[in-house]
Amino acid sequence: MSHAALRAVEEGGAARAPRHFLDIRDHDSATLRAMIDHAARMKRGADTAKPLAGKTVALIFEKPSTRTRVSFEVGIRQLGGDVVMLAGSATQLDRGETVADTARVLSRYVDAVMYRTDNPAKLHEMAANATIPVINGLTAESHPCQLMADVMTFEEHKGPIAGQVIAWVGDGNNVARSWIESAARFGFTLRLATPPELGPPAETVAWARALGAKIELTADPEVAVAGAACVVTDTWVSMSDDPHANRHNLLMPYQVTEQLMGLAAPDAIFMHCLPAHRGEEMTAAVIDGPQSVVFDEAENRLHAQKGVLAWLLADQ
Ligand code: CP
Ligand code: NVA
Question: Which of 14, 131, 156, 306 has the greatest number of C-beta atoms within 10 Å?
């Protein structure tokens, strides 16, 4: 039984429903802002509390990872917690045990679960059946932890993100969807240039626009990038995609080159969640050039996720 559930039983009450971190859209602007502000305080050493002392987090990976795996493990330890690492293929999930039963079992051992899986329905089944917080470590549809780090990184370099113009160039994928949700929550303009065949999900665009978000869709990368404070791209072939050659044909006009960066604001930054493929979604000159902040972005996964973990677990 999780600490929260045990405490509730001892106190004679019902366990509170756990907090989860499944998507940017699930949280209001003030809550997200508080997590990022806390992350920034921890990053500069102004808060060294250990809110995860005595707590254990399970990390389940059904897909490969470098940044998410290492930044969660290190961040949890820095917050005083312990980690259990699980490759999905090494668990009974791979032999047909349900996600729901896995969630119920893990809830008896650990205090939170981070889950990376292709299928968002599996993530939601985990959250619906766990009595502990569940964190989305990437699905085929979204990558909210990445966006917490990305907003933090943008603001470190460019100041408040509200009112700024960000250009997404390339595939309208899982990370793009989380950027759209973030535009609604953080109040920036997001221009997305994608091939029409690989546009972002219409439902997410409609959701964000209904909240007043400025989401501009175009097939022309030059239109998206013009005057932007930040140009963002991502791999052309995500882990959930079939790597067929046509994706490359469709996406080649969307390669971020020095020439394209030259159309953005003169002091624009370049972002990419990594892993990157030089010569595909961007040239080496762009990702390795002076406008690139991709390694600050990777570092901020650590800090931003500590903000998320502290919010999920501090009072639970
Ligand atoms: N950006 C990101 O999530 O990287 P990993 O796949 O290495 O975790
Ligand atoms: N869109 C990429 C992001 C990797 C972190 C993928 O899903 O593979």
Answer: 306
